[in-house]
Amino acid sequence: MTRMAEDPRTAVVEEVRAAILQGEYAPNQRLIETDLCERFSTSRFIARAALQELSAQGLVEFQRNRGARVRDISLDEAIEITQVRKLLEGLEAARAAERVTRAQAAELRAIVKDMRAAVGSAEPLRYSELNARLHAAIRDIAAHQTSARLLQQLRDQTVRHRFSLSLVPGRSLVSLPQHEAIVAAVIARDPVAAEQAMHEHLQSVINAFEALRAAATRP
Fold first, then answer.
1. What is the pTM of this model?
2. What CATH class is the domain 8-70?
3. What CATH fold (topology level) applies to the domain 75-217?
4. What are phi and psi of 188, to 5 degrees?
5. If we measure between CA atoms, which residue out of 198, 206, 183 comes closest to residue 116?
6. Are 142 and 182 in contact (CB under 8 A)?
7. Pairwise CA distance, residues 169 & 191, whole Å
C-alpha cells in the first residue's frame, strides 16, 4: 500500500506523475480511475482530481468518451518547449550568477566534476542524472519562483525525449563543455556570459532534437 501525505490528492498527483516520468505509464496509455484507486489506495473522486491536475501540467489529456491517457509529446512540441526553456533558463543562469555563494559555487564544481567522471567511464544514464541535478542547482540558486514552476512542467513534458537524447552516441561529449561554460560563468558572477552559455547549450539541445526528428522521418 502506498503511503499518503496529509493531502491525499497531492500525494496521488505526485505518485502518478512519478510513474509517468519513470516510464511506468507509456505515452497514449489509458489511465483508468479504478486502476489508480486500487494502486494508490484512494477514492475515484481523488483519482479524478489528480488526473485533472496532471492534465493542467501537460502530462495527461482527456479524450471525449474515452477518459484520460498519458499525453504523447511529439518531437515538434519538444523543440518548441526547449525554445521556451532556453529563454527561462537563460534568465535563471543570469540570476544565479548574481546570487551564487561560495558554498553553492563549490556544489556546482562538484557536480561538473562528477559529470566529467561519468563521461570518462561512459555512463550516459549517470551523466543524464547529473545533468538534471546541475540544472536544478542553478534553478535553486536563481530563486525565481515563477520560472522554476514553469520549467518544472516543461522539463517533465520532455522527459522521454531527453532520455532518448542522452543515449545518442557522443552526446555527452558535446554537452559537457557547454555545462562547464555555464558553471564557469555563474561562478565568475558574470550574468551576461552565464545567460549566453545557457542559451548556447539549449540551442544545442534544440539542434539535437531536430536531428532526431530528421532521422525519424528519413525513408
1. 0.85
2. mainly alpha
3. Four Helix Bundle (Hemerythrin (Met), subunit A) (1.20.120)
4. -75, -5
5. 183
6. no
7. 32
